[in-house]
Design brief:
single chain; di-copper center containing domain from catechol oxidase; binds copper (II) ion
């Protein structure tokens, strides 16, 4: 049992150990394997394929398993490291300590969004983008999107998702606008005036690599998704009578049959079901 800490409480030695372990995974090639996995399972709901990681109920359990894989690799490098979480409702500024030189580095420069500071700056020589490359091989960010400003989700916006007692609702995709905690927190359910909510809005606020299927190219991905993972706990605590849905494979004739994962079906690429991921007790806890 280990602890996942709020990133704002890490001391400089802990930040150093985390980023050093991440850089080692990059160096030995396993980091880019992880990025490839995320890209491969980034299936939008206009495709009629299985959606396991996004726009579907298994968004939470799939990412929980994915983060655990990353964390096990980190701990293979340094057993004292775990994934910190970033509470974006409180650390909501582009100048918060998260984005400092000694941790993730800051926003990209204006010209080409290239991250110039911190351990993942291209110039440091340790962070070349190799998966999902468009043209440039440097990490890009555009924190807060100054030319078309976007704010991080507020506590009230987050609460709106947490208050929904239904885990998810048909049609179990990005259009499940009637409600459901999953779609409200993943962030597709939004009023017309606003395109993004919660989790999706955070990806947009960071910008650059974080806005695409190979978002884990930016190590900020893990801290963001650790908070999303914590929020799943918070929702479970608030709604003890609610559970993962759909609880059984969808009926014959349902257009989403074969495209979403129900409670006891395995989530590729692993032989792990949502039920296996409902709790992380005994493995880690949030502090
Ligand atoms: Cu995400």
């Amino acid at each position: 049992m280990y602890i996942r800490q709020n990133q704002r409480n890490l001391n400089s030695a802990q930040k150093k150990r985390f980023t050093a372990a991440v850089l080692e995974l990059k160096r030995n090639g396993t980091y880019d394997e992880l990025v490839r996995t995320h890209g491969k399972y980034f299936v939008p709901d206009k495709d009629s394929k299985l959606r396991v990681g996004h726009m579907s109920p298994s968004f939470f359990p799939w990412h929980r398993r994915y983060l655990l894989q990353f964390e096990r690799l980190l701990q293979g490098v340094d057993p004292g490291v775990s994934v910190p979480y970033w509470d974006w409702t409180t650390d909501s500024s582009p100048v918060s300590s998260l984005w400092a030189e000694d941790f993730l580095g800051g926003t990209g420069r204006e010209k080409d969004r290239r991250v110039m500071t911190g351990p993942f700056a291209y110039e440091k020589g340790n962070w070349e983008i190799t998966v999902g490359v468009t043209d440039a091989r440097f990490l890009t960010r555009n924190l807060g999107r100054p030319q078309n400003p976007i704010a991080l989700p507020t506590a009230a916006e987050l609460q709106w998702a947490l208050d929904d007692p239904a885990y998810d609702t048909a049609p179990w995709d990005s259009t499940a606008k009637g409600g459901g905690f999953r779609n409200k927190l993943e962030g597709w359910a939004a009023p017309k005036s606003e395109r993004w909510r919660n989790h999706n809005k955070v990806h947009q606020w960071i910008g650059g690599h974080m806005t695409g299927g190979t978002a884990p190219n930016d190590p900020a991905f893990w801290l963001h998704h650790a908070f999303v993972d914590l929020l799943w706990d918070r929702w479970q605590l608030k709604h003890p009578a609610s559970g993962y849905l759909p609880s059984a494979p969808l009926e014959l004739g349902d257009l989403q049959r074969g495209r979403v994962i129900s409670l006891d079906e395995p989530m590729p690429p692993w032989n792990i079901t949502p039920r296996d991921m409902l709790s992380h007790q005994g493995v880690y806890r949030y502090e």
